[in-house]
Design a protein that fits this description.
Elements: H1 2-6, H2 10-20, H3 26-50, H4 56-78, H5 85-107, H6 109-120, H7 125-146, H8 152-161, H9 167-191, H10 197-217, H11 223-242
Helix pairs in contact: 2-3, 2-11, 3-7, 3-9, 3-10, 4-7, 4-9, 5-11, 6-8, 7-8, 8-9
Length: 243
């Protein structure tokens, strides 16, 4: 429902909920949620593509950074035992910090846009593309490690770098980019043995009707209030993961 209402919350809330409330191992929670997000956002991507609210040039530029970063992160994770206590602690810490950063990004998005308006409008196309690739690489690493970042952080970065493009088109581009990113990362976690297929089926049975309900309600509720509630919830969950 939250993804349908605000566009974010798939990895940002589902993964900490699986870890904190249901006691799922962090690596399994991340891997399973990645596949769930990829399948759920594929539907959203089709809708945005149908309404021509996807800038495929931006999608390709983001993917030029995120796909290699995802592959390298999976290779890094394959060198460690994800089920030992030390790896679990690292994933929990990175997840917690990512949640807190995502919460800050949500709360300060409008201020960040206003503060950056002076220099982002003067970026050359080459520098704009380079920063988009770098942003994609950062998002690819965070998403593969924690399943967090594709929504709130990715959309905010695009708003900062492309101030002249309509937000709806940037949101659609970010959703379209998240589909191959989370699918590749999820398949990588599958190779590492970090997927619970029964859990994935349960999540999808709730997320598909939930996102439909959220999409219907999205036009009736104030977006700022929803974003604030989501940010506070993520900040609390992130702090709990770290502590």
């Amino acid at each position: 429902m939250l993804v349908g209402l605000t566009g974010v919350g798939g990895g940002s809330l589902m993964t900490p909920l699986l870890v904190l409330l249901f006691g799922i191992h962090p690596s399994v929670a991340v891997g399973t949620d990645l596949l769930q997000v990829s399948l759920t956002k594929a539907v959203g991507s089709l809708v945005h593509g149908f309404h021509d609210t996807v800038d495929w040039r931006i999608v390709r530029t983001l993917a030029a950074g995120s796909i290699p970063a995802t592959v390298l992160t999976i290779l890094l994770l394959s060198q460690v035992d994800l089920h030992n206590a030390a790896a679990q602690r690292v994933i929990s810490d990175v997840l917690g910090i990512s949640l807190i950063c995502t919460a800050i990004t949500l709360l300060l998005r409008n201020r960040l846009v206003r503060a950056s308006a002076g220099w982002t409008t003067q970026l050359s196309p080459r520098r704009q593309a380079a920063m988009t690739v770098a942003s994609g690489a950062l998002v690819g690493f965070l998403v593969t490690m924690t399943s967090v970042g594709a929504g709130a952080i990715g959309t905010t970065v695009l708003i900062l770098l492309y101030p002249h493009i309509k937000i709806a088109r940037l949101v659609g581009s970010d959703i379209a980019h998240a589909v191959p990113l989370t699918l590749l990362a999820g398949l990588g976690h599958w190779m590492l043995g970090s997927i619970d297929w029964g859990l994935l089926g349960s999540l999808l049975s709730g997320s598909v009707p939930g996102i439909i309900i959220g999409s219907v309600l999205s036009s009736r509720l104030p977006e700022f209030a929803l974003r604030t509630i989501l940010a506070v919830t993520m900040a609390m969950a992130g702090s709990r993961m770290v502590i």
